[in-house]
Structures are given as structure tokens and as C-alpha cells.
Amino acid sequence: MEIKAATEAFAALSQETRLGIFRLLVQVGPDGLTAGEVAQRLGVAPSTLSHHLAMLERAGLLRSWRVQRHIHYAPDFDGTRRLLAFLVQDCCGGRPELCGEGLLAAVGVCTPACSPDAPHPIPVGA
Length: 126
What we know:
Strand content: 5-15%
CATH class of the largest domain: Mainly Alpha
Number of helices: 6
Shape: elongated
Number of strands: 3
CATH architecture of the largest domain: Orthogonal Bundle
CATH superfamily of the largest domain: Winged helix-like DNA-binding domain superfamily/Winged helix DNA-binding domain
Number of domains: 2
Distance between the termini: 31 Å
Strand order of the largest sheet: 1-3-2
Low-confidence stretches: 110-126
Order of helices and strands: HHEHHEEHH
Structural class: mainly alpha
Largest sheet: 3 strands, antiparallel
């Protein structure tokens, strides 16, 4: 991920309503919700919701699709993984094993050092 794209994603998440939308949709999962359901669950006026949804979608964090008259929104898990990978790509000064295998594997940047068989220099929970 380029730094410009990462900056746009962070900017999209740096506002309370947009962060709430993103977290709600991540909890719901890939089936997502209609814009009306998002507005109702979060108590956000539909007139302002569309702006927030569009910004999250432009940042690569949401995807949308139309079913008849309703637009559904769900997390863009590939975009979210790219953002998380951007955050940890240089984890621990080039020693990714220090970050923990779960974190790196979760964002798809696991290296041989974080394979289940690799020795861990820092005990789990330290």
C-alpha cells in the first residue's frame, strides 16, 4: 500500500461517525447492512451518512452493491488487510517474530520467522 492510500484510510477512520460505521460493519461481516440499517443502528441522519460511507469506500475500507432500491455496505477485507499490513510491514526493526505470529498472520504479512515451528525469542504474554 502506498503512503497516500494509507493516509486516506487513516483520515477516513479518524472521524467518530466513520469509525463507528466501520466497526459496526466489521462486526456484521461480509453480508453487510443497507445504508438505512447502518443509519438506524448508529442513530446517524441518512443525509449525512452517505458522505461518511462514500469516504470509507473511497479509502478502500468498504465495498457496496445494489439490491433493487437498496445499497448494501460491507467491509472491504482486502483493503483493511492492506492497511494493517502497511502498519506492521516494518514491525520491530526488521524482527517480525517480536510482533507475534498471530498479528502478522492475521494481516497476511507472516514471514518464515512467525511460522508455528519457529522459536520465539520473547515468551507469549511477556
